[in-house]
Amino acid sequence: MTHKATVKALDVQSAWLQSYIGSAEKQQQLFKRTLIVIVISQIFGGAGLAAGITVGALLAQDMLGTDSVTGIPTALFTLGSAGAALLVGRLSQRFGRRSGLSTGFLAGGIGAIGVVVSALTNSILLLFISLLIYGAGSATNLQARYAGTDLANPTQRAKAVSMAMVSTTFGAVAGPNLVDVMGEFAVSIGIPALAGPFILAAAAYLLAGLVLFISLRPDPYIVAKAITDAQRTTGDLLSEENTNLLSINKRGIFAGAAVMILTQFVMTAIMTMTPIHMGHHGHGLNEVGLVIGFHIGAMFLPSLVTGFLVDKMGRAVMAAASAVTLLVSGILAAMGPADSMAVLIVSLALLGLGWNFGLISGTAILVDATQPFTRAKTQGSVDVWIALSGALGGGLSGMVVAHSSYAALSIAGALLSLLLIPIVIWAGINKQSKV
After folding, report:
1. What is the CATH classification number for the domain harbouring 214?
2. 65-77 CB burial, b ≥16 within 10 A, e <16
3. Deepest of 89, 91, 206, 215, by most Cβ within 10 A of its Cβ?
4. Is the residue at 232 inside a domain?
């Protein structure tokens, strides 16, 4: 491209961005369009996410022949999601949400294909490598929730997060309930049954990435950064009041991150060992799929209500509600009869609901505490720690159960969740953002 052509292209881009900077109406139109695209991609992303949660531990158990390492698959794909979260955050910061999110979902699809091949060839090494790559889909599925907040007003942020999450429900709930169908399909083409859900995951993640790559135009993050740059030029963000606010909000970033990290750790640890716990007490694969389906449904389906409550009642109130819900879930899972499907469904549904409260309130706290010119990078870094906490929870869960019990694991998670309450009190989280 010649110099004149480059200058002309930049002028066109500048004029295009300027049309959004000067129009609140166009910003809201793009905000609504972005939510629609995110909703569609998250339906596919949810289906891809569900495969690893439902049968990852069972596949490892089958290939490795022992229970003590069945937490490794969850640890690996959550560890992979940590690296992917950093990459997606950096790509989004530099090139926009479209580039970051579509790349992440593409990697997740490739990882799912690798899991299928590893099951076919009975290669443990390939399984572990593929699960790491597959984790990119999980990281991207979570980071997509931020895209809806880029152009949201402070009173729209939690609802924007909730729209992204509730749309995940459709795929995430369908995924576990297609375990038998995909298993039969896999067997019919000569692939082990437990690898069947990963065939669905591969297709789902690739479709999610394609939807974002084609449709997430104009890129909401690029527009949000341009708006902030224009405000900074006019001095709107350089006042003493805003400088002080940025300093105070370091505490908000820590609190938002801590809420999400703790809820992820507790949820992942208990959820990972539930299929193994059920298998030891005579429950079949179909029953496992049903329980996990309710769990995932509770993780995402209440999101619209949760988002409304977070915006109206306040971030701190809903973070505390997350702690209480996780506490009740852990006690019920530990004390309830292991052969009762009703108890298992209720305890795992409460586990998912507590996670939902924590993720949406924590995300809103984090968005409140950041500015667009550093937001994607900060979000990616925080999601790394969220993923690492999930990896740690998944990895430790198998060891705890192998050397103690599922009940001990559940009680420990229940007590740990109570730390959320002093964290939000210490941070002094306000009802509404002032950013």
Report:
1. 1.20.1250.20
2. eebebbbbbbbbb
3. 89
4. no
Cβ(410)–Cβ(270) below 8 Å: yes
How much of the chain is in helix, strand and coil states, percent to nearest 5?
85, 0, 15
Segment 253-279 shows an average pLDDT of 91
- Chain segment 8-58, per-residue pLDDT in tens: 444 445 676 777 887 888 888 899 999 999 999 988 888 887 766 667 777
Whole-number pLDDT of residue 67: 63
Q: How far is CA 401 from CA 18, 122, 339, 388, 410, in A?
A: 58, 26, 17, 20, 10
Q: How many whole angstroms separate alpha carbon 65 and alpha carbon 126? A: 17
Answer yes or no: is 11 within a domain. Answer: no
Residue 251, domain extent: 23-227+241-427
Q: What is the largest CA-CA distance in the chain?
A: 74
**How many CB atoms within 10 Å of residue 36?**
13
pLDDT at 379 over 50: yes
Which residues, other chains included, contact 237 with Cβ-Cβ below 8 Å and sequence gap of 6+?
Answer: 228, 231, 371
Looking at the structure of the chain, the number of domains it has is 1
Distance CA 159, CA 152 (A): 9
Q: Does residue 228 or residue 211 have the better pLDDT?
A: 211
Contact 358, 233 (CB under 8 A): no
Q: Phi, psi (5° rounding) for residue 432?
A: -130, 155
At 316 the pLDDT is 92
Residue whose pair of structure tokens reads 């579509």 in the numeric block: 102
Burial (CB count within 10 angstroms: exposed 0-12, middle 13-18, buried 19+), residue 86 = middle
Quick one: average pLDDT of 221-240?
69
pLDDT tier for residue 74 given thresholds of 50, 70 and 90:
low
Residues 6+ apart with CB under 8 A from 203: 109
CA–CA dist 290, 280 (Å, integer): 17
CA nearest 259: which of 108, 416, 431, 102?
A: 416
Single pTM value for the model: 0.77
- Indicate whether 355 belongs to any domain: yes
Dump pLDDT digits (tens) for 141-183. 888 888 888 888 888 888 888 888 888 777 776 776 777 788 8
Angle, helices 72-95 vs 24-64, to 10°: value is 160
Q: Are 292 and 275 in contact (CB under 8 A)?
A: yes
pLDDT score for 405: 87
Question: What tokens appear for 384 in the block?
Answer: 């790394």
